[in-house]
Amino acid sequence: MTMRIAALGGGHGLYATLTAMRYLSPEVTAVVTVADDGGSSGRLRAELGVIPPGDLRMAFAALMCAPAALADVEQRSGPDAVRRHQLWAETFQHRFGGYGALAGHPVGNLLLSGLGEVLGDPIAGLDELMRVFDVDGRVLPMSTVPLQIEADVSGLESDPRISRVIRGQVAVATTPGKVRRVRLMPPDPPAAPPALAAIEQADLVVLGPGSWFSSVIPHVLVPEQLEALRRSDSRKILFVNLAPEPGETPGFSVERHLHVLHAHADRLRIDHVVVDESSVPAGREREHLERAAGLFGATLDVGDVAVPGRHVHDPVKVAALVNQLCDRELNR
């Protein structure tokens, strides 16, 4: 039986997760944050009122050109089909050069925005792209409306006890202060019904890694989606970042990442918290981390999941570890 997987996140973190999960199953649904307000996505949401397409584009590209996906394409249709897939994936990610109105826009962002306008529904546009390019899986927005991140940030005033409210994903990601808490605007955004269904029907739900305050935590700030996570009987795995991220989480320990997530969703239950063995040495620090994982009812699973010498998750290693965790549960 094919495993149904829902992967929650955004940006480069979700790209790596989707590449990994595609080794395990063709039935992978990406549930993507829609709060980006920078670059091409920010310009398109401001000019057209669309949900920001950038992270959706990245997720589509991941499912389109993951090594396991290309292997399936070659088996179905031969090497020429693989080359076409690679060409279109490269084109989809290509950014226009020059200095005019199109400069900096990826082709995929414009195509997604255009399809959403023609069909009157961004989800229908995403589904049509998956069909046209013969891509397995599905890409869905977390919400059906563009969202804004609002954060309480300390360290910007002479008095460190005073917090200032910062609005916008780019502003939050680049603030020199310390992010204490984030919210979504509107505060009770509508979830995308297909995303809720994907979570509730999944055999496995994966959250993270990624920008902690702008790509991971927002997934538990949509009330309907948090409730879907709580209702789902799926196995749930949280991947913690390999290192603090400049701007959002400078100086954060791995344990601090868990405490911050728990502060935003203290009713969330997770089965496994996965960390890279090099980021948490054995001893007292790992014992503290085990207790932090226990806040979610989770076990701490430590393994080699990083690309050597880089703070990047290795999709092959991640897939192998997730497969081990799933096999371990089946054999209990």
TrEMBL record:
<dbReference type="GO" id="GO:0008360">
    <property type="term" value="P:regulation of cell shape"/>
</dbReference>
<dbReference type="InterPro" id="IPR002882">
    <property type="entry name" value="CofD"/>
</dbReference>
<dbReference type="Pfam" id="PF01933">
    <property type="entry name" value="CofD"/>
</dbReference>
<comment type="function">
    <text>Required for morphogenesis under gluconeogenic growth conditions.</text>
</comment>
<keyword id="KW-0963">Cytoplasm</keyword>
<dbReference type="InterPro" id="IPR010119">
    <property type="entry name" value="Gluconeogen_factor"/>
</dbReference>
<comment type="similarity">
    <text>Belongs to the gluconeogenesis factor family.</text>
</comment>
<dbReference type="GO" id="GO:0043743">
    <property type="term" value="F:LPPG:FO 2-phospho-L-lactate transferase activity"/>
</dbReference>
<dbReference type="InterPro" id="IPR038136">
    <property type="entry name" value="CofD-like_dom_sf"/>
</dbReference>
<dbReference type="GO" id="GO:0005737">
    <property type="term" value="C:cytoplasm"/>
</dbReference>
<protein>
    <recommendedName>
        <fullName>Putative gluconeogenesis factor</fullName>
    </recommendedName>
</protein>
